[in-house]
TrEMBL record:
Entry-linked Pfam families: dCMP_cyt_deam_1
Similarity-based family: Belongs to the cytidine and deoxycytidylate deaminase family.
GO annotation (BP), single: nucleobase-containing small molecule metabolic process
GO MF entries: cytidine deaminase activity; identical protein binding; zinc ion binding
CMP/dCMP-type deaminase domain: residues covered: 39-176
Sections of the chain in a coiled coil: none
Highest taxon of source: Bacteria
Keywords associated with the record: Hydrolase, Metal-binding, Zinc
UniProt-recorded name of the protein: Cytidine deaminase
Species name: Algoriphagus chordae
Cellular-component GO terms for this entry: cytosol
């Protein structure tokens, strides 16, 4: 071998080194009583609650509502729409963010409110966006180079407030061109 180190040599030499590390991820967010929300945040949550009633969820009976506030102040909303072929169903968050992007391509989403509950139940469920929805929120933040406020309803009536998707998606899939 003319001066090169083979993969097996590197492997043999690496046996003496410990490669494991313990890494801790901390999450920072707020848990607020309804009264602690701004009037605008309460409005957004109410719109998400109302639109959850229009969910088409005959298979899960899990009704999700999402409402967004655009940079212009306009509010858009949507609910989940299921399909007997489960992968075809669309989450409320992705539906409203897709609509915002297609119809208001130059306006950033400032806030998103998310609520969910089982059909016929009074108590709101503990919910957070699925992985696809988290990645969609991430893409919208990258598109406009600004984090959005994420509001999530808790069963006890409190609301979680996140500043950007980073806390909910610490290992996000970022721009492939950068």
């Amino acid at each position: 071998m003319n001066g090169t180190i083979s993969y097996l040599d590197r492997l043999e030499n690496s046996k003496d080194r410990t490669m494991s590390k313990k890494i801790k991820i901390e999450a920072e967010f707020e848990e607020l009583a309804w009264e602690e929300l701004t009037i605008e945040e309460q409005q957004l949550m109410m719109r998400a609650r109302k639109v959850s009633e229009s969910a088409y969820a005959p298979y899960s009976n899990f009704h999700v509502g999402a409402a967004v506030r655009l940079a212009s102040g306009e509010i858009l909303q949507s609910s989940n729409q299921e399909n007997v072929s489960f992968p075809v169903g669309v989450c409320a968050e992705r539906l409203v963010l897709g609509y915002a992007g297609a119809n208001f391509p130059d306006l950033a989403v400032r806030e998103i409110a998310i609520v969910a509950r089982r059909k016929g139940e009074e108590i709101w469920a503990s919910v957070s966006p699925c992985g696809l929805c988290r990645q969609t929120i991430n893409e919208m933040e990258m598109r406009f180079d600004r984090p959005m406020t994420i509001l999530i309803q808790n069963p006890d009536g409190s609301v979680l407030r996140f500043q950007g998707i980073q806390t909910l998606l610490p290992f996000k899939f970022d721009d492939l061109n950068g």
